[in-house]
Amino acid sequence: MPPVASTPLRHRLLTGLVIPACPLALNSRRRLDERRQRALFRYYLAAGVGGLAVGVHTTQFAIRDPKIGLYQPVLELAASQLRTAPKTIGIAGLCGPTKQAAAEATLARQIGFQAGMLNLGALADATDAELLAHCRTIAKIIPTVGFYLQPATGGRLLPYSFWRRFAEIENIVAIKIAPFNRYQTQDVVRAVAEAGRDDIALYTGNDDNIVLDLLTPFRFRVNGKWTERRIVGGLLGHWAVWTRQAVALHAECRRVSKSAKSIPSHLIRRNVEVTDANAAFFDAANGYAGCIAGLHEVLRRQGLLEGIWCLDPKETLSPGQRAEIDRVYQAYPHLNDDTFVARHRDEWLRA
User: Fold this and answer.
1) What is the CATH number of domain 7-259?
2) Is the pLDDT of residue 58 over 70?
3) Sorting pLDDT into bands at 50, 70 and 90, what band is 150?
4) pTM for this prediction
């Protein structure tokens, strides 16, 4: 029997969670630093996240290279920490053509991950029908999180018709919406609403609009009646840094969205501040070339990572990016969680 998503899993996702896309901790030889990788997971759990996404873009796709062989070890490290926080959801990144993605889904399920997030980047030339067949295959192995990834970082444009049919797959539990585009974001939300799937949780990955995504009511006319859907949480690389404050901000956004009251002006300002910080961390000025290194730089400053090394030696900060990170640190001190990290860092770094 396929592993049909449990009611508790769906319920947890639907309540709205902060799910950081976890970075990879490397030493100066670009080898896995298990102590600091474990410390990162402990940091996120202590910050109050509702899930961990591992083996995703922020963890670096190259972990799947047989010569590197880090996909399974990193997932196992995460699973060992998740066992200390049983209410926290583990989501494994799933990539590649169907054979590879199915093998990764099977492994993630065996290790103890509750869901897999499916990246369709490797099927750039597939038809929509072929993509949907791929998704159905993976969903038979593990409860699946869909992923609308912007073309600038390896995704492809997917029409409303694709998402409408995708929303009919029984074992879809959530969709991460990250096209960085209002039209395409609405395509996904409307498709889920018109499919009548109130059991599919919607998560933002739109780094340029995080706060407003969490506050916006999406209303559509479905079968002659108005239907409203909300983006309830985020699965974000951005939330891999300053995570404690991200948890607090998400909680505030959820309180406001549930109250049906007007959005306070300070949250609209906060959307601009978070987007500005994200532009620095993710190197938006240079087409996101330094996005992973930018997150590493923040974690290095906090003492959680030893350096900003990536598996690819060419992957580093762009010219001027460090100065941009300096700028947003100075501009928005209320967004960082340096004090929280400093208070607990040594505890998390213990073997």
Assistant:
1) 3.20.20.70
2) yes
3) confident
4) 0.96
Q: Mean per-residue pLDDT for 188-207?
A: 97
Q: Is 82 left (phi over 0), alpha (psi -120 to 50) or beta?
A: alpha
pLDDT at 1 over 50: no
DSSP type of residue 1 = -
Cβ neighbour number for residue 66 with a 10 Å cutoff: 6
209-213: long-range contacts at Cβ-Cβ below 8 A with a sequence spacing of 24 or more? 209/180, 209/182, 209/271, 209/275, 210/234, 210/236, 210/238, 210/271, 210/274, 210/275, 210/278, 211/249, 211/253, 211/267, 211/268, 211/270, 211/271, 211/274, 212/268, 212/271, 213/177, 213/185
Neighbours of 338 (CB within 10 A): 17
Residue 326 and residue 351: Cα distance in Å, rounded? 31
Query: 101-118 b/e with 16+ CB inside 10 Å = b?
Result: bbebbebbbebebbbbbb
- How many CB atoms lie under 10 A from the CB of residue 214? 24
Q: Say yes or no to pLDDT of 312 above 80.
A: yes
Using alpha carbons, select from 241, 201, 192 the residue that is nearest to residue 17.
Answer: 201
Neighbouring CB atoms inside 10 A of 64's CB total 18
Mean pLDDT of the residues in the chain: 96
pLDDT number for residue 154: 73
**Cβ-count burial of 61 within 10 angstroms (0-12 exposed, 13-18 middle, 19+ buried)?**
buried
Question: 261-298 pLDDT, tens per residue?
Answer: 899 999 999 999 999 999 999 999 999 999 999 999 99
Domain range list for the chain? 7-259
CA dist 229 and 124 (Å) reads 29
Distance separating alpha carbons of residues 103 and 105, to the nearest angstrom: 5
What size, in residues, is the chain?
351
Query: What is the SS3 string spanning 123-183?
Result: HCCCCHHHHHHHHHHHHCCCCEEEEEECHHHCCCCCCHHHHHHHCCCCCEEEEEEECCCHH
Q: pLDDT over 70 for what percent of the chain?
A: 99
